[in-house]
Write a structure and sequence with these properties.
alpha/beta; single chain
């Protein structure tokens, strides 16, 4: 079976990481190729893993010709299933897949952007009507999508994101090395956030909470792994708050497991989330979690059991939660252990791969049989009896 994974975005993120994991992790007999609308991290990472990639940019903002080019690509590849991630890839991919007679699996990873305009919601309703499977990564996102699209939630499948447990475990050597590289001393406390530097991730709230705690915790540091348009504004805000020396903006990093080993707390003060892969990584690593109670986060972390949750945008509440974690080693350990167990039970990479493999095989089994001639893009003649 040949599966074509397609996404519109180029920069690293949760959806892009899931696509790479799916392309790389399918078992024998499930071959993957990648299609991206832009050259960037996703296409480069797929190539590094030996997965063929086609970069097919849109020639204009609304490029109907792209669907024909994509359909031809699917015929040339003799594709069995298209798996589209996020809005543009799902909408364009749905048309191209239909032209080529290839079933579509569509996954939505978040709430941002696509619900904002009526035509986008209408486009997604069309995708939902034609897709073999329409997937969201959390129950919250399923209910949101169903409400926005006006369909029954039962028509939308939920598959949780997953990561490889073997990559995420306590690593004292990595902790010492990374903390040394960051200039942290014994007794310093590191709050780690991982995610794009954008307003939706709530990094400004984290800086304000850290500044509040700095009065009583002079050893507190904030470490953020990620890149984005808010970098200059965050540096300016840190200077205004007097915590510039405590802020470490690392840019995009490939060593997130090591960074998690170096952290004392993982913070995710987002205003919106689907099923954040970075939080699943923190759960797998056994790092205590403080986060905002939005989107799919409460389905990952139960407040007071697996971590501490606060209202989005409330810097004082976030500061209090971080202080409570830092002041109580027993609470930190208990929450970290509980989150790790929850990860192993529900959010492993193997579970995610198996769920999608089943969808691919179901979609493939439902499509009409095509001869070798038709798969090459030529018209198939009716069979004679």
């Amino acid at each position: 079976m040949k599966i074509v994974q397609i996404i519109e975005t180029a920069d690293p993120g949760g959806a892009e990481s899931v696509l790479v994991a799916l392309a790389q992790g399918m078992r024998s007999g499930h071959e993957s190729t990648g299609v991206t609308l832009l050259e960037g991290w996703t296409s480069q990472t797929l190539r590094e893993h030996g997965i063929p990639v086609a970069v097919m940019p849109l020639k204009r903002s609304f490029d109907l010709g792209w669907t024909s080019r994509f359909a031809n690509y699917l015929r040339e590849q003799q594709a069995d299933v298209v798996h589209a991630h996020e809005f543009a890839a799902s909408c364009y991919g749905a048309v191209g897949a239909k032209l080529a007679g290839v079933p579509l699996v569509c996954t939505i990873h978040g709430k941002n952007y696509w619900p904002d305009r009526y035509y986008r919601r209408a486009a997604f309703r069309r995708v939902l009507a034609t897709a073999s499977s329409f997937v969201t990564v959390s129950d919250d996102l399923r209910d949101f999508a169903a409400g926005v699209l006006g369909v029954e939630a039962g028509r939308i499948r939920v598959i949780h994101n997953g990561v490889d447990a073997m990559k995420y475990s306590s690593n004292p050597a990595a902790r010492a090395l990374l903390r040394g590289q960051l200039g942290l001393h014994d007794g310093d406390e590191a709050i780690l956030a991982v995610g794009e530097l954008s307003t939706v991730k709530g990094h400004e709230v984290l800086l304000r909470a850290a500044a509040s705690l700095a009065r009583v915790r002079p050893s507190l540091h904030v470490v953020i792994a990620g890149e984005g348009g808010e970098r200059a504004r965050l540096l300016e805000l840190a200077a205004q708050l007097g915590i510039s020396e405590r802020l470490h903006l690392l840019g995009f990093r490939r060593d997130v497991p090591a960074l998690l080993s170096a952290a004392d707390i993982f913070a995710m003060p987002s205003f919106s989330e689907g099923m954040p892969l970075a939080m699943i990584e923190a759960m797998a690593s056994g790092v205590p979690i403080v986060a905002s109670e939005v989107g799919g986060i409460p389905s990952l972390v139960t407040h007071g059991t697996d971590g501490l949750l606060t209202k989005a945008g409330d810097a004082d509440a976030l500061a209090n939660a971080m202080q409570a974690m830092l002041d109580n080693p027993a609470t930190r350990q208990s929450c970290a252990d509980s989150a790790r167990r929850r990860f192993l039970d529900h959010f492993s990479l193997s579970s995610m791969l198996e769920n999608y493999r089943h969808l691919y095989e179901t979609a493939c089994a439902s499509k009409p049989r095509r001869s070798a001639t038709s798969r090459s893009g030529l018209q198939q003649r009716p069979e004679t009896r």
